[in-house]
Amino acid sequence: MLALNELVARVEKEDGEGKEIIKGLSLNVPAGEVHAIMGPNGAGKSTLSYVLTGRDGYEATSGSAELNGENLLEMDPEERAAKGLYLSFQYPLEIPGVPVMTFVRTAMNSQRKRRGEEEISAPEFLKKARAVAKVLKIDADMLKRPLNVGFSGGEKKRLEIFQAMMLEPKFLILDETDSGLDIDALRVVSDGVNALRAPDRGMLVITHYQRLLDHIKPDKVHVLAAGKIIKTGGPELALRLEDEGYDGVLAEANA
């Protein structure tokens, strides 16, 4: 599904020079699995998500990144999305004047067009949107409002999962989806994410905290530090990090 091999990437700085953040990162997430990435601040977690999805200013300089055997690094961001790559933002953007429903249907039809598929009809779209909104406890008025404008942190995160459930991507990257969520909102968002689990779909969950992984059970947990994966384990690794912090794992890696 997602295969990264010795990926090196940098971020462009305001002075025009690049700073290397990802430093030889290798990772394999098979179809049907959910992997979590944890790590201290500045480790490169969000940078990794931006490199994979093609955000401006984030450049892979060597190594490889493939989705289902296809080279992501040769695709523009729109093509990556059409191939099934989805990023749930840590800080979702607000778009004044663009209603949620208009935005989501436009995104769906744009991806369908790139794949050579027919556009989704209005009745089919509305039926699906209502069903997904019910799962995520999103009311109809919220879907009529401009995208994320005036939304609480929990509403924004629920809307990110709403978009994912509507688009049905092949691979999801969830960048600190638990940020800003209270207990009830965390449970609702997690239920939506779990509903997206499928044998032909993979997920990469980026988080600081064990609490999200209590709801979204990962198959593997990876610790990212200084641009590299320094340790991989099962769900018990996240519990260890919650109890001990990162110092012990970092010391082991540097021993």
TrEMBL record:
Key words of the record: ATP-binding, Nucleotide-binding
Domain ABC transporter residues, every copy: 2-251
Pfam families to which the protein is assigned, alphabetical: ABC_tran (PF00005)
Annotated SUPFAM superfamilies: P-loop containing nucleoside triphosphate hydrolases (SSF52540)
Family membership: Belongs to the ABC transporter superfamily. Ycf16 family.
PANTHER family, per the entry: ABC TRANSPORTER I FAMILY MEMBER 6, CHLOROPLASTIC (PTHR43204)
Name of the protein: Fe-S cluster assembly ATPase SufC
Organism: Hirschia litorea
